[in-house]
Design a protein that fits this description.
Distance between the termini of chain B: 46 Å
Helix content of chain A: 10-25%
Strand content of chain A: 25-35%
Number of strands of chain B: 13
Structural class of chain B: mainly beta
Largest sheet of chain B: 6 strands, mixed
Radius of gyration of chain B: 16 Å
Oligomer: heterodimer
Number of strands of chain A: 20
Largest interface: A-B, 33 and 40 residues
Shape of chain B: globular
CATH superfamily of chain B: Fumarylacetoacetase-like, C-terminal domain
CATH architecture of chain B: Alpha-Beta Complex
Number of helices of chain B: 5
CATH class of the largest domain in chain A: Alpha Beta
Number of helices of chain A: 5
CATH class of chain B: Alpha Beta
CATH topology of chain B: Fumarylacetoacetate hydrolase, domain 2
Order of helices and strands of chain B: EHHEEEEHEHEEEHEEEE
Number of domains of chain B: 1
CATH superfamily of the largest domain in chain A: Fumarylacetoacetase-like, C-terminal domain
Strand content of chain B: 25-35%
Chain lengths: 261, 215
């Protein structure tokens, strides 16, 4: 089953995907996906992201593959839903998307062995972990100013039940910018696979329901500009759409209000 | 008025005091891998599993023999705060807490220190107090009754107001989030059996103990 969260007519709804692809509210109402305001499919707990977890991407960035997972954290401010906008600040010269399989934790666990790790997984969704490389600094790199900006990590639209994905380690990842394919890869190329990541993280901290692991991105980064529509898709999971806006577009409402005042 | 508590995300910053910058050294900061002193606040996140109350017994992670005790104070946000100006920054702060940011000792700040900083119970925090004048606040760390560190917030590179301004320039803090104003580089270490006490005038004290890792 595919589950989502939306805002519709003044309330937050847990929804499912109907057979025809439409959004189904619990009371049976069916809506087109463009009629609703998408929220992240889960209220995020701790959000982990993996750097350099695909060998080709590590090479692309001129790093050798890490020996232990290179994990970093995000705050909830970074997470936005499907069909949201992400801001490219005026001084950015290189802002790129990162298509990632996101693993949503469904249970509390500590010291989870690899063999039991998949029991911890509630399901999967898709993330686009934008980065603005102009702001990279070599302190706790990738630093929060690059990776924890407001709205820089779209997530969703659907949370797909774990058991609906036969092999999460063999899924195609694709990014399209304005309809043109720019990034392709497969989760088979992850350096640290999902069970290894769960075993590693739970070896020193308790994982909880709602925690999310963004498992990294393959090669194929490209600069994105205001107006670009970015689709990040993981085969069998879902396709996440996000639009880049400039400062004027992002703060437009604010400026309009100021103009009226 | 709703009673304020730490309910959101905890953010911290390193190298935000002149003593720490001197200790790590300008030559080190200029060389690889840092290639220059930090420009934006050098931040990290302490997730929810790290928070424990005063009086807790903190278990060392497996394989660890000591933890750094990064004494600090945290600014508790009373409302959502984005792109704050200096003039309004402190209006967004509902209160202040003493905090002990515990870390496995790590001399390098190059890569995110998740294993070192995010183990369970690695952030004892005190009760929420009304905001006091932080300009000259002195935070005292005692281990087993001995004063091992005293640091004054007068030594901060970014004072609490500037830190709020520079952090909220790119990320909105939510009501209930906590922003730690900085920890010392290579802070004093506590070991299994240590009783730790952090205190500051007007903020009372925060106490906890360290216990050995379970076999």
């Amino acid at each position: 089953m595919k589950r989502g969260r939306i805002a519709f007519q003044g309330a937050i709804h847990q929804v499912t995907q109907a057979a025809d692809g439409r959004v189904r509210l619990a009371d049976g109402r069916l809506l087109n996906e463009t009629e609703v305001q998408w929220l992240p499919p889960v209220v995020p707990g701790a959000v982990f992201a993996l750097g350099l977890n695909y060998a080709d991407h590590a090479r692309e960035l001129a790093f050798k593959a890490p020996e232990v997972p290179l994990a970093f954290l995000k705050g909830p401010n970074a997470i936005v839903g499907h069909r949201a906008v992400t801001r490219r600040p005026a001084d950015a010269t290189y802002m790129h998307y990162e298509c990632e399989l996101a693993v949503v934790i469904g249970k509390t666990g500590r010291n989870v062995a690899r063999a039991e790790a998949m029991d911890m997984v509630a399901g999967y969704t898709v993330a686009n972990d934008y980065a603005i490389r102009d702001y990279l600094e070599n302190y706790y790199r990738p630093n929060l100013r690059v990776k924890n900006r407001d709205g820089c990590t779209p997530l969703g639209p659907w949370l797909v039940d774990r058991d609906d994905i036969a092999d999460p380690m063999a899924l195609k990842l694709t990014t399209r910018v304005n309809g043109k394919t720019t990034q392709q890869g497969t989760t088979a190329d992850m350096i640290f696979d999902i069970p290894t990541l769960i075993e590693y993280l739970s070896s020193f901290m308790t994982l909880n329901p709602g925690d999310i692991i963004l498992t990294g991105t393959p090669e194929g980064l490209a600069d994105v500009r205001a107006g670009d529509v970015i689709e990040t898709e993981v085969e069998g999971v879902c396709c996440l759409i996000s639009t880049i806006v400039d400062d004027a577009g992002y703060f437009a409402n604010l400026q309009q209000k100021a103009g009226i005042a | 008025m709703i009673e304020q508590k730490v309910s959101g995300t905890v953010y911290g910053v390193v190298l935000n005091d002149h003593a720490s910058l001197r200790k790590i050294g300008s030559e080190v900061l200029a060389g690889a891998p840092y290639k220059g002193a930090p420009k934006a606040p050098a931040m990290y996140i302490k997730p929810a599993n790290t928070r424990v109350a005063c009086g807790s017994a903190v278990e060392l992670p497996a394989g660890a023999s000591a933890v750094e005790v990064g004494a600090s104070v945290g600014l508790l946000m009373g409302r959502a705060a984005g792109r704050l100006s200096r003039a309004e920054a402190l209006d967004a702060v509902a209160g202040i807490v003493l905090a002990a940011d515990l870390s496995l000792p790590h001399a390098s700040y190059y890569r995110p220190a998740i294993r070192e900083k995010c183990f369970d119970a690695s952030l004892p925090i005190g009760s929420v107090k009304p905001l006091v004048d932080l300009a000259g606040l002195v935070i005292v760390t005692e281990i087993d009754g001995e004063v091992v560190d005293e640091r004054s917030l007068a030594d901060l590179v970014r004072d609490p107001v500037q830190l709020l301004v520079d952090v909220t320039e790119f990320m909105t803090l939510a009501e209930g989030d906590l922003l730690l104003v900085g920890v010392a580089y290579m802070a004093p270490q506590a070991i299994a059996g240590s009783q730790v006490r952090i205190s500051a005038a007007g903020l009372g004290s925060l106490q906890f103990s360290i216990t050995g890792a379970r076999a």
